[in-house]
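Assess this today:

___
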Amino acid sequence: MKVALDGSGLTKIASTQNVSPQGIAVDRSNVYWVHGDAIMRAPVAGGTPMNVASGQAQPNAVVVDDARVYWTNFGGSLLSLPKP
């Protein structure tokens, strides 16, 4: 969900089932989050979630910059991929 700073305009960005999103990061175009063993993304305006990386070992935090998506996995691994 997203909402304006004044609390108006609640908008659903994406729906996930059976897992609560964690480790949310945002850039100008997309929202990124941890979903179970995967890193997901969806347009800020709302839309279908897309898989960025799956089969991860308990991913936790997500960070994005202009070129890459970074995340941590259980045990201390730091991974990254170019933005799709």
Summary: The first strand starts at residue 22 and ends at 26. Residues 37 and 66 are 24 Å apart (CA to CA). Strands lie at 22-26, 30-35, 38-43, 50-53, 62-64, 68-73, 77-82.
